[in-house]
Write a structure and sequence with these properties.
three-stranded antiparallel beta sheet
Length: 529
């Protein structure tokens, strides 16, 4: 009766927790499959995070919101090449302290991954189990982006090259003609020798040429341009009027009226800038929430070996003394997942897309049949691969398209340690706590293109992380009673919760994970228990 009630209780808890995510290397899950049996696993896992552990400039650790990468008192600062626009306008207005402004932007970002890990393991012998694990993943990024146009102080709007490119082209053509005419006039006047007229003509030609260079650079720098009605737009109009007066006095053709931005940006416009060619970002989707399709992660093939054990066999299961078990594990993680896309901003991949080699040890110690502790450690060698990345800091949410490059990526080693003390409430039910430590060492990155000025150190310096997680869970396991003959069928069900409490590095996620799992057994050969 007690076993039936526990079956019902744990099965109900499992069914209520079918929204879970991937966690590697659980110390309590390292038991081998009985010889001649197949163990099938379905393990849904859910992970979510909206902040990360980071390192401040003074070396101290701090927690940052992911949305900070999309937040600024001046939204223009989030876009590449703003310094080119700023430099051009400073030159035109002779204002060395000028700073273009678009208005404040606030972002909130939450990233999620839902995974179901399907696994099949076969007990080849009493000391060897082989298996395969196939993760089926879906990613989701929730983005709330609010851009507030500053109607009082902002001086930037949507670049007219986007809304009225023909008008801008006509304006630039008129500047080019005026500059060429001024240069030809100066050449003609100065042919007779240096004099006051020659100096005046040369000054006008230089003035027209400088205006042409700076205004052309300003139009092509970003998706923004000074707004009509702003102080900056008024100053540029006045500068052009003065230049036209000088050209007219010299009997040269005038320049067409300056084409200024007519439209301020709404939140929707701001999000669409990432896919606008003039922004220089080259993204394939706007900055908005999206849910990925279900797809395979990195498939794992592994073998577990029993190294030492006095816990598994029937004659010692009820021993009130000390029981122990030590197992080893070797595995290969295949490049079947899809890495994050360099052209989808804030993307999450379903896998790393490169080969991993893993080795680990797990040990379990039980005292008086009730109290125990399980530990495990693993070392993963990640093999190099070639892929396309944006060579920019991870905190730069919208890097320029020119940072996109093919790189040779040699990811750093992974080290994981887990400690899980537990209390057996009955022969089939236990509660446990967990502590996990994870470290990823620095990557090595080589940019394949030899003519690029990009620095791979940007990627290398931000690739190492450390993470500490704590949690606990509930476990229902009838395998040992089944071996004794006290349970009709072997089954394992668990529910876990983990939370990252401390980390270091530039992008260690402060995540929360919820995991459930069920393992069912089927006899393939040998005698029925």
């Amino acid at each position: 009766m007690r076993l039936s009630l526990l079956h019902l209780l744990v099965s109900t808890v499992f069914l209520m927790a079918l929204s879970a995510y991937h966690i590697q290397g659980q110390a309590l899950d390292q038991g081998l499959v009985p010889r001649g049996h197949l163990r099938l696993q379905a393990q849904p896992i859910y992970t979510t995070w909206d902040s990360r552990f980071n390192q401040a400039s003074d070396g101290s650790e701090r927690i940052e919101k992911l949305g900070d990468d999309l937040s600024s008192h001046n939204g223009a600062n989030l876009f590449p090449d703003l310094e080119i626009l700023q430099s051009s306008l400073r030159e035109l207005m002779e204002a060395p302290n000028y700073e273009p402004s678009l208005g404040p932007t606030t972002g909130r970002v939450q990233q999620e991954m839902t995974s179901i890990k399907f696994a099949a393991e076969v007990g080849v012998s009493e000391w060897l189990t082989v298996g395969v694990l196939i993760p089926w993943n879906q990613t989701r990024t929730v983005i709330d982006l609010i851009h507030t146009p500053d109607t009082l102080n902002a001086d930037l709007g949507l670049n007219p090259t986007i809304q009225d490119p023909s008008a801008v082209q006509s304006f630039l053509s008129s500047i080019n003609s005026a500059s060429s005419d001024a240069q030809a006039r100066a050449t003609e006047i100065c042919a007779g020798g240096a004099n006051a007229s020659c100096v005046s003509a040369l000054e006008l030609a230089a003035r027209a040429s400088a205006f042409e260079s700076a205004i052309s650079s300003a139009y092509s720098a970003t998706a923004f341009f000074p707004l009509a009605g702003s102080n900056t737009g008024g100053q540029l109009t006045q500068i052009l009027a003065e230049l036209n007066t000088a050209l007219s006095t010299a009997n040269l053709s005038s320049i067409l009226p300056l084409v200024l931005a007519q439209t301020t940006l709404s939140s929707g416009d701001f999000a669409m800038m990432a896919v606008t060619p003039e922004s220089g970002i080259g993204a394939v989707s706007p900055v908005q929430s999206r849910r990925g399709l279900w797809g395979p992660g990195d498939v794992e093939v592994s073998a577990k070996l029993r190294l030492a054990d006095n816990m598994t066999y029937p004659e010692v299961l009820d021993d009130p003394g000390i029981a122990y078990r030590v197992t080893g594990r070797v595995g290969v993680r295949l490049p079947t997942g899809t890495p994050e896309s360099p052209d989808v901003l804030l993307d999450i991949g379903t896998g790393d897309g490169q080969l991993d080699l893993e080795a680990g040890l797990a040990a379990e110690l039980r005292v008086n049949g009730r109290f125990g502790i399980a530990t495990s450690g693993s070392l993963v060698s990640q093999r190099p691969t070639t892929l396309v990345r944006r060579v920019a800091r991870r905190s730069q949410a919208m890097p320029a398209s020119r940072t996109r490059a093919e790189v040779r990526w040699d990811p750093g080693r992974l080290v994981g340690i887990e400690i899980s003390p537990y209390l057996r409430i009955s022969s089939v039910l236990s509660i446990h706590g967990e502590y996990r430590y994870f470290q990823k060492f620095r990557d090595k990155v080589e940019i394949i293109a030899s003519d690029t000025s990009l620095n791979p150190f940007i990627l290398e310096s931000e690739s190492g992380i450390k993470l500490h997680e704590v949690g606990g869970g509930l476990r229902y396991d009838t395998v040992e009673p089944w071996i004794r003959g006290d349970a009709p069928k072997p089954m394992e069900v668990h529910l876990r919760f983990l939370h990252a409490i401390e980390g270091s590095g530039s992008h260690a996620p402060k995540w929360t994970r919820v995991e459930a799992g069920i393992r069912l057994f089927r006899r393939l050969w040998g005698q029925t228990k």
